[in-house]
Design brief:
three-stranded antiparallel β-sheet; 6 helices; mainly alpha
Length: 166
């Protein structure tokens, strides 16, 4: 009987995680996707930290987001089309590109974060502050465990051992 309950719990965990990820991916604020919002926020924060109003190197954005430079370039295209960012070749080193947030981008950033704040206030109000805090705690721990187990699985695969060999 214990095996059936464990199987049900695994199924529920997988389905709930899938629904959470799907809902999160579909979530849009002011017609901006999650990656666009994060990208705009990273650029603005780097500009503020470095007091560099001329922009941020694409390579710095990539490091900040822990993604490749080509992935950043792809994400920047959408922000450029919306006129939220500008890319310029670095005059001192023509191999590097500098990205800066436009006035329109800064205004969009403010609107998005106001909209997100309102949205999250309503969610917390409905869910309850204590539940929200507990969820944050549980999700942090869950994410740590998933990361650890994922690394273990990758290491086992590299060593030629598969979970099915058990």
């Amino acid at each position: 009987m214990e095996g059936k309950k464990e199987e049900e719990l695994r199924d529920q965990l997988i389905m709930t995680q899938h629904r959470l990820i799907k809902t999160h991916k579909e979530l849009r604020f002011f017609e901006m996707g999650k990656s666009e919002i994060i990208m705009l926020d990273v650029i603005l924060k780097k500009e503020q930290i470095e007091k560099n109003m001329r922009g941020v190197y694409v390579s710095e954005i990539a490091r900040g987001l822990n993604v490749s430079v080509p992935a950043v370039s792809k994400m920047l295209r959408s922000l450029e089309e919306k006129e939220y960012v500008e890319r310029k070749v670095n005059p001192k080193d023509r191999r590097s590109t500098i990205v800066s947030v436009t006035l329109k981008g800064k205004e969009a950033h403010k609107r998005v974060f106001r909209e997100m704040d309102t949205f999250l206030e309503r969610v917390i109000e409905r869910f309850g502050e204590a539940n929200a805090k507990e969820l944050v705690h549980l999700l942090k721990r869950y994410t740590e465990i998933i990361g650890e187990e994922s690394r273990r699985m990758k290491d086992r695969i590299k060593e030629g051992f598969h979970e099915t060999d058990i």
